[in-house]
Amino acid sequence: MLDETDRRILRHHLAEPGLARAELAARAGVTVATLWRRLERLGAAGVIRSERAVIDWRALGYGVEVSLRFTLDKTDPRAFDDFIAAAREVPEVLAIETFLGRVDVRLNVIARDMAHYQEVYRSRILTLPHIAELEALMLISTIKEQEALPL
Amino acid sequence: MIDLDDVDRAICRTLAADAGVSAGELGRRFGLSQPAAWRRVKRLEEAGVIAGRRVEVDRAALGFGVTVFLGVKLAARGRVSLEDFERAVVAIPEVQVVQHVLGLFDYRLRVVARDIVDFERVLRRRIMTLPGVGNVEANVLLTEERRPGPLG
Questions:
Q1: Reported confidence tier of residue A45, pLDDT bands at 50, 70, 90
Q2: pLDDT range class, residue A65, cuts 50, 70, 90
Q3: In whole angstroms, what is the distance from residue B99 CA to residue B110 CA?
Q4: What pLDDT score was predicted for residue B77?
């Protein structure tokens, strides 16, 4: 379904998502009209799902980011659904991921500082349903973050 | 730190869902002129609140059916250089995310692979051979959902 031109466009697009369309077209070696047409088609086919602005939460005063890994009590068949629905109600939760492995669910949680984190942790996280175990990884720094694929 | 009003937050929320919404459209939605909306976006970018763009793709449709999160503990023995580990790990094309963390592990990695066999190749040839690598725990990603965060 994808040809070499699509792949080339995607490679450049994923590597530098902030590029203006004209610049992206130049790097991928296509005209701007072709680029628009291809991007539209990739979007319609669901290959490109979305383009989103990245919010830097630190710039907004959220200095703490924690990765919380949960094991759920799976004797209750609704454990995943209940847990995820409740986690969606917590504004400080930035991402919800489910896994196959030792960890069932991971939440990415931000807070303004440690005092705020403790408050969120006690009042909003520990009260989530069906938790069997949880452990926290506190983010020190992000060294690499990219959507690029080895296409 | 920048102070945001309700309109700024609404703009952030909108662009975080779809970066393609134009200044004209933002203006129509939030009762601003097109230039006023543009100036607000510009200010948010200059303050670093809007830090760039992210393109989300269907990785499976592009042939990368497996995403694995690895927790990596560096080996306790000997002198482990964080710099050596970091330099080597960021160079692996299959590794999309590297985070230095505090807790049970030292690093969190997001790794993409074509399938489980391909993942095993990446794990054995590239991850387990990294300088200083000790314990590795793998969890295969099933679903992921991004939330808007506290912009309400």
A1: very high
A2: very high
A3: 9
A4: 65
- Is-contact A146 A2, C-beta < 8 A? no
Chain CA centroid to CA A139, Å: 15
Q: How many residues does chain A have?
A: 151
Q: Which pLDDT score, from 0 to 100, does residue A143 have?
A: 95
Domain ranges of chain B: 6-46, 66-140
Cβ contact A150–B94 (<8 Å): yes
Q: CATH topology for B66-140?
A: Alpha-Beta Plaits (3.30.70)
Task: Inform me whether the pLDDT recorded for B52 exceeds 70.
Answer: yes
Across the interface, whether the CB atoms of B143 and A98 are under 8 A apart is answered: yes
CATH of B6-46, one of 1.10.10.10, 3.40.120.10, 3.50.50.60, 3.40.50.300: 1.10.10.10
- Single-letter residue type at A73: D
What is the structure's pLDDT at B78? 64
Rg of chain A over Cα atoms, rounded to whole angstroms, equals 20
Do B2 and A97 make contact, defined as CB atoms within 8 angstroms?
no
Instruction: Answer whether B17 touches A (CB < 8 Å).
Output: yes
User: B88 and chain A: CB distance < 8 Å anywhere?
Assistant: no
| Ordered domains of chain A (ranges, CATH) | 4-44 (1.10.10), 57-138 (3.30.70.920)
